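Why does residue order matter? Because the sequence determines the fold. Keep that principle in mind as you read this record.
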Amino acid sequence: MVRGFGAIAPSTRHTGMQQQPVVLLVVVLLFSGAMVARLVWLQILHGRENLALADENRIRLVPRNPMRGRILDHDGRVLASSRLTYNLYIQPRLVSDGQWPGLRDRLASLVGVPASELDRQRRAGRNNEGYRIELAGNLRPEQVLRFREQAPNLAGAEVDVDYLRAYPYGSLAAHVLGYTSSVTAEEYDKLAEKGYRVQDRIGRSGVERVFESTLRGEWGGQQLEVNAAGQVQRVLGDKQARAGKDLRLTLDLELQKTAERALDGVRKGAIIAMDPQTGAIRAMASRPTFDPNIFSTGPTTAQWNDLSRPEAPMLNRAFQGFPPASTFKVVTTIAGIESGALPANGTLPTMNSFCYYGQCYADHGAFGAIGYPFALAVSSNSFYYQLGLKVGPDQLFQAARRLGYGSLTGVELSNEETEGLLGDAAWKRRVLGEPWTPVDTITSAIGQGAVTVTPIQMARLYGAIANGGWLVTPHLVEKPTKRVWLGLRPDTLRVLRKGLRDVVTEGTGKVLNDPSLPPVAGKTGTGEDPPRPDHAWFGGYAPADKPSLVIVAFGENSGGYGGTVAAPMVKALMTTWFRGSLAADGARPKAG
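Structure:
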């Protein structure tokens, strides 16, 4: 039988019908397998990641920044605190890149901040944690009011309370207190592991920097569950921010105020007042100065230019080295007696001009043959020229190092402190490539040449004379501190104390011989700095018989003399500290 073209045999149709269920089963299995594989992928292999993504869509993190600890003087009076302010933020999870331009323009119109500045702040504040980004700070009340009136139409933006560092006395003790500013993006990469946030602030100088871990506190915050419209449904977690600890300094507010006023008479200078027995710093001032409050909101261009001027307002001159001039003669005195070059009761002739190997050096007077006390009182250069030559450079610089010159003092602000310079023979060969000469010895003996000393080093030295030969560690926060016994001979201390007292009673520091003050002892110094005006120094202590306060005052290129420029500064501080009658034990009398 001939079949028609294209006809299908019955057996073939039967086979095709049998294969259809198999194909359907394969298809079903493939789809089921794909679904199972996807579920395994989503829930097992990447379950935690997807859960986190889901949480991110429904959980809003609202951080609470901590209030920084206060800085107090030794009587508990506030030198630095925090004040409330209002800042503008956005929640980056709620504002997409597409939504941002419209929101930005509305915010710019409401709060009066340029759109370009809002863009810049948003870019700078981006973070992987999803924390809110600060767009503008320190909002005025009218800006806050305008925002809140339009808040329902500003989804993703919010105004919240923040804290700004506040210094109620402005520039007072600025170099001691320091300042804070925002963490930079580069710093954040290193500080995040220590608990810092992008919008955090950090101490930059002074005790704000050194005691950052004490003052900063710990962040807190809320975890809020929100719906698709961004409305809060419930609080999932709440951790209160922990405020930083208060820091009590050794400074005395009233004495610090006096020190600041005393420096009004010079363009540049420094004052240190210290307890010679313990090393507690009662006042530390530097001029020119700055107002740390400007860093709380960020300095303007004009303010930054002022801070960057050549006079360096942010430089703490209490820690910088300057030629000590005749205040260094106490070092030469110690070297002379301790080395045996000239005994405590020895004398040397003095003259108007001292000549040595064909070169002459001027003096301001000829007093005949004199000893140490009178040489200190009248600051006789010719006496100390000869003494320096007798002592020699090795013994001279050995004594200076023994007394703490040429090294850091141990004060907490060590990162800002310099060591000064003791330009001895080794230094001259290394730096200048020249041999030491007698001229170098002569100039070094009176505190000139390649010798520089910081005011805080000088306070430490004069404190050692005042307390009977202990080199104390200056400090700004009360704590056990190291004292080093210098081992000075009794006759060395006797000569120094008599000589420094004679400076005030009959020598170059008579301005301090005031019956309203306790007996004062100290030494003037006038340092040459050609072609600029001279430096003026005074280092001393009181009461002379039982010292409780040592003061060093310095006028950088102030002109004048130590006795006419620096000594009156010291007198102002002595008057404040010892006002009223002295207590029976010679300590500072109680106020009132």
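Residues 1-8, 51-56, 580-592 have pLDDT under 50 and may be disordered.
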